[in-house]
Amino acid sequence: MSAGTSGTTTTSTPSTGQKVLTLAARNWVPIVLIVVGVIFIAQNTQHVRINFLAFHVGASLWLILTIVAVAGVIAGWFIGRNRLKRK
């Protein structure tokens, strides 16, 4: 063998940083939407009165927006899961 080389070969496995970058590159639109949503919720902190059908609730707007966003994520997860089952 020549100087400076060894007889072992190394397998290149992606590091955690590379995995994160790959995930971010593939999912940049949802990541941007999440960041924009969090900023929007954080800027709307005033106390509001919510009327829904016969219910009247007074709460912080950030709390209501967070609940609606979580409900949307759960609904999207169920819809996506059902689409995968049909295929």
UniProtKB/TrEMBL annotation:
<dbReference type="InterPro" id="IPR010445">
    <property type="entry name" value="LapA_dom"/>
</dbReference>
<feature type="transmembrane region" description="Helical">
    <location>
        <begin position="53"/>
        <end position="79"/>
    </location>
</feature>
<keyword id="KW-1003">Cell membrane</keyword>
<keyword id="KW-0472">Membrane</keyword>
<keyword id="KW-0812">Transmembrane</keyword>
<feature type="transmembrane region" description="Helical">
    <location>
        <begin position="20"/>
        <end position="41"/>
    </location>
</feature>
<keyword id="KW-1133">Transmembrane helix</keyword>
<feature type="domain" description="Lipopolysaccharide assembly protein A">
    <location>
        <begin position="43"/>
        <end position="80"/>
    </location>
</feature>
<dbReference type="GO" id="GO:0005886">
    <property type="term" value="C:plasma membrane"/>
</dbReference>
<dbReference type="Pfam" id="PF06305">
    <property type="entry name" value="LapA_dom"/>
</dbReference>
<protein>
    <recommendedName>
        <fullName>Lipopolysaccharide assembly protein A domain-containing protein</fullName>
    </recommendedName>
</protein>
